Amino acid sequence: MIGDSTITVARQYLRDNVPPIAAGAIIHDNGCGTGAVTRAVLETYPELLWSSPKATIYATDIDPACIADLEKRVTSRGWNSMVKTKVMPAEDLSLPPSTVTHSFANSLIFGARDPPKVAAETLRSLAPGGVAVMTTWATLPHAKALDRTRARLYGEDHPHIKPEWYEASHVEKLLKDAGFAKITASKVESGMEHESMDAWTQLAWSWMGQPQGGWTEQNERDWDAHRSLYADECLKEGFQVGEDGHVRVHMVANVVVAWKGE
Ligand SMILES: C[S@@+](CC[C@H](N)C(=O)[O-])C[C@H]1O[C@@H](n2cnc3c(N)ncnc32)[C@H](O)[C@@H]1O
Q1: Cβ(66) to ligand 1 under 6 A?
Q2: Rounded distance, CA 200 to CA 225, Å?
Q3: Mean pLDDT over each residue of the chain, to the nearest integer
Q4: Is residue 151 within 8 Å of residue 157, measured between CB atoms?
Q5: How many CB atoms lie within 10 A of CB 233?
Q6: What is the CATH number of the domain that holds 37?
Q7: What's the domain range around 73?
Q8: How many angstroms from the chain centroid is the CA of residue 134?
Q9: For a pocket test of ligand 1, which of 2, 62, 87, 251 has the largest count of ligand atoms closer than 8 A to its C-beta?
Q10: Distance 52 CA to ligand 1 centre (A)
């Protein structure tokens, strides 16, 4: 739904924030979704596919549908010898201790059931000197627009993402408390584009507009009116409609990089 916004973030931190990934690396794409980090790693370092010693990417997610989708891509691209996909909760990683050289959790931590457990498991799985990257959103206009639309329509006051997750310092503290040795934070720019505001709200409202208790027939009758309210809130949050009718929005990610002590 959010297009290339997460792979755009991964491409930048792989280029600017993470030490080069070399042959023999053991990489974890934690909460991989449809594999944004896996794809960004293989775009940035295509030589890993035939490197010796062999590099491995473990691409894991709690959602079997994501893993099935990524598995198809892995097979169609011929990545099977390097990319191992598995359904796995980030709170309970079936990866051996002290083995992973690079652990990526792109847009995962704020949606996980137990973030401190995720941090602890990430540290446990990392090799001494290994690096972890966790990203969150500093600016996520469609989520803010969603919160206001849901508040107006359904009287809800719980946000899509808890406010503390917009601050990099929240992730820094989480990783410090877990025992990471060195931690840095920075921001990277991203964004998304959709064919039209109509296409965007059809997609977004069907994913995120459902009231607690499920859709009703009245919701069906109100579908266009509710989408229109959501479109107004998106525009207030900075969505821009171009001359081509495409809708674009600017997003900013927090990138927190943390090292396990030697
Ligand atoms: C916003 S998506 C990000 C996907 C991908 N990392 C990316 O950058 O595009 C969050 C992903 O985390 C997964 N997820 C949520 N909670 C999880 C958990 N506790 N353990 C593993 N994966 C989880 C979701 O199923 C979803 O695929």
Answers
A1: yes
A2: 15
A3: 97
A4: yes
A5: 21
A6: 3.40.50.150
A7: 5-259
A8: 9
A9: 62
A10: 30
Asked if the peptide bond before residue 53 counts as cis, ω within 30 degrees of 0, the response is yes
**Span 193-211, pLDDT tens digits:** 999 999 999 999 999 999 9
Task: Tell me, using a 6 A CB cutoff, whether residue 192 lines ligand 1.
Answer: no
Q: What is the pTM of this model?
A: 0.96
Q: Is the CB of 8 under 6 A from ligand 1?
A: no
Q: Which pair of structure tokens corresponds to residue 19? A: 């030490």
Going by DSSP bridges, is the β-strand pair 126-139/247-259 parallel, antiparallel, or unpaired? antiparallel
Q: Which atom of ligand 1 is nearest to the CA of 91?
A: 19
Q: Is the CB of 63 under 6 A from ligand 1?
A: yes
Q: Is the CB of 6 under 6 A from ligand 1?
A: yes
Instruction: Tell which atom from ligand 1 comes closest to the C-alpha of 9.
Output: 8
| Residue indicated by tokens 């927090």 | 254
The residue whose two tokens read 């503290």 is 173
- Give how many domains the chain has, as a whole number: 1
Residues near 247 by beta carbon (within 8 Å), at least 6 away in sequence: 193, 194, 195, 196, 197, 199, 200, 234, 239, 240, 241
